[in-house]
Design goal:
Distance between the termini: 70 Å
CATH architecture of the largest domain: Up-down Bundle
Strand order of the largest sheet: 1-2
Order of helices and strands: HEHEHHHHHHHHHH
CATH class of the largest domain: Mainly Alpha
Oligomer: single chain
Length: 255
């Protein structure tokens, strides 16, 4: 009955995840493969940036764009997974997962799984020896905390972001570059991700009501340029330093 209701298609289906990470040469080779086996095979390319797919390949595909899940839907799904996997969670964990995953449900599930294993390992160590399966999600006894989610997500402490924002503010001493350079160097030395710096600094400045709207317009453009550079593989230290100095210049300019 199942086969009658859902008959198998007369071709094979190949799903290529993260296709935008393929080199242009690899995509060109894939194009020839797609043309050769087009009668018996269908290729599904999953990517985050369609602009990184070469035109000859993109023109042969039908494009389907998927929006991020809403917070309510994502929260319901995360609670369902935690309940079925018997993973206890503290209050606010689901909200933290949604916030730090930026609407990416797969990333949120990965964070939850990693936090569950981390908590399970900590609980197992209390009894002495850790059994082989002590880190399995099913063995978790302690509740997953918001702090564990933030640690796994690589969230930068608020005081670190605040120190960078403070260094970018107009100073009578005229040591703006020295102050910013010191904070950025410390952040890089601590191993914080440049993309995470951009994300949290964006939230700290754009949602700051004391910053003029005309300044925010210019700063948003700076964030977009730096994000593009980082995606293209630019040096993280120089990118953060350049971004911070340019934002400082905007903040010190007259409205």
């Amino acid at each position: 009955d199942y086969q009658k209701q859902y008959p198998c298609p007369p071709y094979k289906i190949i799903i290529l995840d993260e296709a935008d990470s393929m080199t242009q040469d690899a995509q060109s080779a894939l194009r020839r493969t797609m043309e050769t086996y087009s009668k018996i095979t269908r290729f599904c390319l999953v990517c985050n940036y369609v602009t990184r797919i070469i035109d000859p390949l993109a023109s042969r595909c039908s494009k389907f764009r998927f929006k991020r899940m809403g917070e309510e839907q994502a929260g319901t799904r995360l609670r369902e997974i935690a309940e079925k996997e018997k993973v206890p969670m503290e209050e606010g964990v689901v909200e933290a997962l949604i916030k730090h995953s930026e609407g990416d449900l797969r990333k949120a599930i990965t964070f939850l799984q990693s936090a569950a294993r981390l908590v399970g390992a900590a609980g197992a160590n209390l009894g002495g020896e850790v059994e082989e399966d002590a880190m399995d999600v099913d063995e978790v006894q302690k509740a997953v905390t918001v702090k564990s989610i933030e640690d796994i997500a690589g969230v930068i402490p608020d005081r670190t972001i605040d120190s960078l924002v403070k260094a970018m503010q107009p100073s009578s001493s005229g040591l703006t570059y020295e102050n910013i350079s010191k904070v950025v160097t410390d952040m890089v030395a601590d191993g914080w991700s440049a993309s995470q710096v951009v994300t949290q600094l964006y939230q700290a400045i754009i949602y700051n009501e004391s910053v003029a709207d005309i300044h925010k317009n210019k700063i948003v453009m700076i964030f977009s340029e730096v994000d593009k550079r980082l995606a293209d593989g630019a040096d993280e230290h120089l990118s953060i330093l350049d971004m911070s100095l340019r934002i400082a210049a905007v903040l010190t300019s007259k409205v």
